[in-house]
Amino acid sequence: TTPVSTTTTPVPTTATPVGTTPTPASTTPTPASTTTTQPPKVCGHNQFWEQCSDKFCKRTCENINGPIGCPRVCVEGCSCMHGFVWNQNDTECIPVEDCSFECGLNQHWSQCSDIQCRRTCANFGQDVPCPQMCMSGCTCDSGYVWNSNETECIPACDCGKDVCLENEEWGSCANPECKRTCQNTNEKVCSDCFPGCVCRAGYIWDEILQECVPEDHCSGCGINANMSSCTNGCEPTCQGPSPFPCPAVCIPGCACLPGYLMDHHQGHCVLPSECSSVCPRRKTWCRDLPTNRVTCQNILYPQCNYQSNENQTSYPGCVCKEGLILNELTNECITPRHCMRLLR
C-alpha cells in the first residue's frame, strides 16, 4: 500500500485577523494642495491697498472740507494717497489742486486754511488757538480779515466800520484794562495792546452805561462827585453815617470825591466845614461825631466831645438831643424807657 503523506501545505503567516474586514486599495487620487497664491492687490494710479480702506466714506472734491460719517467697520480695498481725492465717479484719485474751487474776493484757496480759527475783526491782533490739523479751504489774502459774519474778507483797516459802535473808532490799543473811563480818568500806560474799538476823541468810556459818552457828560452826579462802580448807600454824609446795616454789595452810582460829604439839605457834596447845621426833630448838630456813636441797640449814649483816635476820621452830623437815644431800626431818637422796651 502506498503510505499516506505526512507533509502538509504550510498555512500563510499573513492572514486577515478574525472579525476584521480587509481595507481595499484606495481608488481616489490624492487631491492637490489647497494653498494657492492670492492674486496681487492691484490699485489704480495714486492709490494704495489697505485692510481698512475708505470705501464707505470716500473723500471727494465736494466733501473735502466737511466731516464724513464713516461706519465702524473695516473693509479692505483701495484708498487715495495723501494729497489726492476721488473724482466725481469715484473711479480715480486726482490731486486736490485739480478740484475746481472758487473763493470770494480777497480770498485764495489753501491746503491749510484758517477754517477752524478764522481771523476776524473781533479777534484781530489777539492770539487765536488753532487745532494742529490742516483743512483745505478759502483763506483771506494778506492784510484782510473775515467780517463779523465770516462771509467776506475785508481790509483789516476797515474793521471799525464793521463792529464799532456809536462814538467809537478802530484803534491800535483796545485793551479794556488800559483805557480811561468815567470812573478812572487817570492816564494809563499800557504795554499789552491789541487793535480794537476805542472811544473817539472827546469821548470817554462809561463803565455804568457801557458806552462812550462826551467827557463833559461823564457822570451827571453833580458838584464834587463822580460815578463809582461800587457804592452801597453807607457813605458818610453831613447828616452822619447811615444808621442801617451796610450791605456787602457793590452798586454802581454817584459818590462824593475823596474828602467831601453829601449834604442832603444842599443837595450836593461839600467839604465837612461847609455842611449845613440843620437837623431833624429831636436831633442836634455836632461838629465832631463820635466814632463810637452808639444806639438804642447797644445801650450806650453818644458824647459830642468824644475824642477819636488818630487813625479814625471825624465827621460832623446830627446826634440825638440830650436824654434821647437813637433807634437804629427807624433812625429816630427815642427815650431810654422806650428803648428798653424794644430790647425785651
Automatic annotation (TrEMBL):
<dbReference type="GO" id="GO:0030414">
    <property type="term" value="F:peptidase inhibitor activity"/>
</dbReference>
<dbReference type="InterPro" id="IPR036084">
    <property type="entry name" value="Ser_inhib-like_sf"/>
</dbReference>
<feature type="domain" description="TIL">
    <location>
        <begin position="164"/>
        <end position="218"/>
    </location>
</feature>
<feature type="region of interest" description="Disordered">
    <location>
        <begin position="1"/>
        <end position="39"/>
    </location>
</feature>
<protein>
    <recommendedName>
        <fullName>TIL domain-containing protein</fullName>
    </recommendedName>
</protein>
<dbReference type="InterPro" id="IPR002919">
    <property type="entry name" value="TIL_dom"/>
</dbReference>
<feature type="domain" description="TIL">
    <location>
        <begin position="221"/>
        <end position="275"/>
    </location>
</feature>
<feature type="domain" description="TIL">
    <location>
        <begin position="103"/>
        <end position="159"/>
    </location>
</feature>
<dbReference type="InterPro" id="IPR051368">
    <property type="entry name" value="SerProtInhib-TIL_Domain"/>
</dbReference>
<dbReference type="Pfam" id="PF01826">
    <property type="entry name" value="TIL"/>
</dbReference>
<feature type="domain" description="TIL">
    <location>
        <begin position="43"/>
        <end position="99"/>
    </location>
</feature>
<keyword id="KW-0646">Protease inhibitor</keyword>
<keyword id="KW-1015">Disulfide bond</keyword>
